[in-house]
Design brief:
Belongs to the NAD(P)-dependent epimerase/dehydratase family. This protein has 338 residues and is of the alpha/beta class. The strands form four sheets. The protein has a seven-stranded parallel sheet, with helices on both faces. Strand 5, helix 6 and strand 6 form a beta-alpha-beta unit. Helix 3 runs parallel beside helix 5 and helix 7 crosses helix 11. It is globular, with a radius of gyration of 19 Å. 49% of the residues are buried. Bound molecules: uridine-diphosphate-N-acetylglucosamine.
Length: 338
């Protein structure tokens, strides 16, 4: 069965391609290489022994998208990762984000709507909840006004899929709302490769541990949490990748209850920034150089998932602990810098 993975050479995409191939799916990757490298294919081959098909296509080029689906009429499912994801950059360049994240989604859906049957998995984010009133966050928590154009593209993306599914019964879709993905494949063949200075906590920590960065800035210790630092739900990228395969199988086997569904993907456990640092120090045996600095604009106090819907409906559960995920992130960082 042929599955298209857009952004399949990126961080979460590449881990998902591995899990798909491990399950026997035939994978074809589209990636524009704007934030990834063709070398990731070697890592995928090293793990799975199989090279996925790869086409370098910019999904903003509508005619290329149309042409792709003509040439690959046998694609039965699409997992759509390709998108821009830097919150700060999205504030600076909103139109780039709307074009990249919304334009491309529309072109893909237009093609899928032409098919007799199509399954679509969308990369969404817990950012759609903003600061939720109740923890852990359930899928029916209200969607709040987005803090950034990036966040808005995830909300709008979900709405566009909802509206499309209402009128295209042959299309079945699932939006997966990720909490905070981290870590790397245990083989250290693939992992996260942020370009430039990492914006996210875990790659910043591992790069500081390697001496690439002098010091981690902890953004605020005056939040109403156990130690004053923000709480997030850090999920191992391999667990996250496996959830995509389970979600896709749910659609392919017509086990979905509605033709558009939403699931949280998290562990259900919240960790503070200082707990994440402690985990790094534990698995690496190194002291991390960090200092407390003022809060970062736009950060919410806490976000962790209620995982019951994913556990019960998808039959999926995150298995790795924070320490295991951190160890994989650290092993990967050491390998990349070796
Ligand atoms: C951020 C985005 C979120 C997006 C996700 C994608 C914001 C407000 N949210 O999530 O919309 O889906 O990235 O990856 O930007 N921290 C530090 N020092 C650092 C970096 C982070 O203390 O150098 C803290 C942050 O304050 C936060 C936690 O670490 O409490 C996690 O931060 P981060 O990895 O950036 O993820 P989110 O902010 O949760």
């Amino acid at each position: 069965m042929k599955i298209l993975v857009t952004g399949g050479l990126g961080f979460i995409g590449s881990h998902t391609v591995v899990e798909l191939q491990n399950k026997g799916f035939e994978v074809i990757i589209i990636d524009d290489l704007s934030n990834s490298s063709e070398k990731v294919l070697d890592g995928i081959v090293a793990i799975t022994g199989k090279k996925p098909l790869f086409e370098k296509i910019d999904l903003k080029e509508k005619s290329k998208v149309e042409d792709f689906f003509k040439r690959h009429a046998d694609v039965q499912g699409v997992i759509h990762f390709a998108a821009s994801k830097a919150v700060g950059e999205s504030v600076e360049k909103p139109l780039l984000y709307y074009e990249n994240n919304i334009g491309t989604l529309v072109y893909l859906l237009k093609e899928l709507a032409k098919k007799d049957k199509a399954s679509f998995i969308f990369s969404s984010s817990c950012t759609v909840y903003g600061q939720a009133d109740k923890m852990p966050i359930t899928e029916d928590a209200p969607v709040k006004t987005a803090e950034s154009p990036y966040g808005n593209t995830k909300q709008m993306g979900e709405e566009i899929i909802t509206d499309t599914c209402k009128v295209v019964p042959s299309l079945n879709a699932i939006a997966l709302r990720y909490f905070n993905p981290m870590g790397a494949h245990p083989s250290t063949e693939i992992g996260e490769l942020p370009i430039g200075v990492p914006q996210n906590l875990v790659p910043f920590i591992t790069q500081t541990g390697m001496g690439l960065r002098d010091q981690l800035s902890v953004f605020g210790d005056d939040y109403p949490t156990s130690d004053g630092t923000c709480v997030r739900d850090y999920i191992h990228v391999v667990d996250l990748a496996k959830a995509h395969v389970v979600a896709l199988e749910r659609l392919l086997e017509a086990k979905n209850k509605e033709n558009y569904e939403v699931f949280n993907l998290g562990t259900g456990t919240g960790s503070t920034v200082l707990e994440v640092i402690k985990s790094f120090e534990k698995v690496s045996g190194k002291k991390l150089n960090y200092k407390i600095v003022p809060r970062r604009t736009g950060d919410i106090t806490e976000a962790y998932a209620n995982t019951e819907k994913a556990n019960n409906e998808l039959g999926w559960k995150a298995e790795s602990t924070l320490d295991e995920a951190m160890k994989s992130a650290w092993d990967w960082e050491q390998k990349v810098r070796a």
